[in-house]
Amino acid sequence: xxxxxxxxxxxxxxxxxxxxxxxxxxxxxxxxxxxxxxxxxxxxxxxxxxxxxxxxxxxxxxxxxxxxxxxxxx
Length: 74
Known about the structure:
By secondary structure, this protein is an alpha+beta fold. It has 2 helices and 2 strands.
């Protein structure tokens, strides 16, 4: 995992580097989730339901190809 040190602006703002915004589909005006943990803050991109459904369909096809019965595949 890559870690990057960011500067905090006068209003408490940070800029998420472009490489991360592109990789996680974070667009201008979009939202992120900030979670406090024992180790610090975690910034997450929200789950895109459409993308999630596409990934589940792909996984379902792979599982069927491996011999899983339809009743066991979500």
